[in-house]
Fold this sequence. Notes:
By secondary structure, the protein is mainly α. Helix content is 67%, strand content 0%. Helix 4 crosses helix 5. The chain contains 6 helices and no strands. It has helices at residues 2-7, 18-23, 25-29, 35-47, 49-68, 75-90. It is elongated and about 55 Å long.
Amino acid sequence: MADEVEAGGRGDPDDVDCNSVVKELYTFLDGELTDGRRVQIERHFTGCTDCHEVVEFHASLKMTISEKCRETVPDALRLRITEALRKAESGPGAGIGDL
């Protein structure tokens, strides 16, 4: 992986090396790449043990954080925020102190 990271940035911009995978990791995990680029990244990390481990770790971490960081807002707080926003729409500074 170290040799590939050092080689990053050379050659065809569509080439995928370890550096590209790391650089575009969260864009990949968030599904924000074009289909073509997603396929290129997948093709690389499927064949690269180091990158595969990095992608699997970060995908698992992202999923764990998403599952564990779900707090519900109490209804009373939700109502106070809604009311404060309504008052804020009425004029400058209105409702801000109500939170």
